[in-house]
Amino acid sequence: MATKTKPTEEVKMHEILVVDERRCTGCEICESVCSMVHDGEFNPLNARIHRIRLEPIINATISCVSCFNPSCVSACPLGIITKNDETGVIKIDYNKCDGCGACVRFCEYGAITIHTKNKQAITCDLCESTEFDKPQCVEYCPKGAIFVREVDPSQDENRIITLGKIIKKGFPEPAEGEILN
């Protein structure tokens, strides 16, 4: 059951990444760009966004969905994963993360992985930890398939339901002549 904050409270919407599967070709540029801006090298295994293919032709992405009550935060035995209440971004203290993987096992959406080199948890932070002021996967997606969308942080609902509502609202129509996936 969804709960909501008091109507008098001003709620700042949180942002998440959502893909328009009609546009996504599965090129994996989002993963390469993500790993480059975070780590300085092209290595999709260390991306904070992950392309998945649902055979035969549907491509989608997995990234942090800013859960109302993130299980990754409560699962961390060191207490070093936090959620920024203002932005909804999950923060990991890399000075203390030991890479135990509890957060990976408890994330219901598969949005946290372990970095292949430094063996620490990583997840999408909308490029807040980089020099850029917006997600670079959105900027560099050649098909314009990745969008930043807002979610109401006061809604305690399953994020699959939230994503369904966002997708149902739809995405901007492609430019004339643009070929969809």
Automatic annotation (TrEMBL):
Stored Gene3D superfamilies: 3.30.70.20
Domain of life: Archaea
The keyword Phosphoprotein is annotated on this UniProt entry: no
Keywords: 4Fe-4S, Electron transport, Iron, Iron-sulfur, Metal-binding, Repeat, Transport
Residue span, 4Fe-4S ferredoxin-type domain: 15-45, 54-86, 88-117
InterPro entries: 4Fe4S_Fe-S-bd, 4Fe4S_Fe_S_CS, ET_IronSulfur_Cluster-Binding
Keyword Electron transport: yes
Protein name stated in the entry: Ion-translocating oxidoreductase complex subunit B
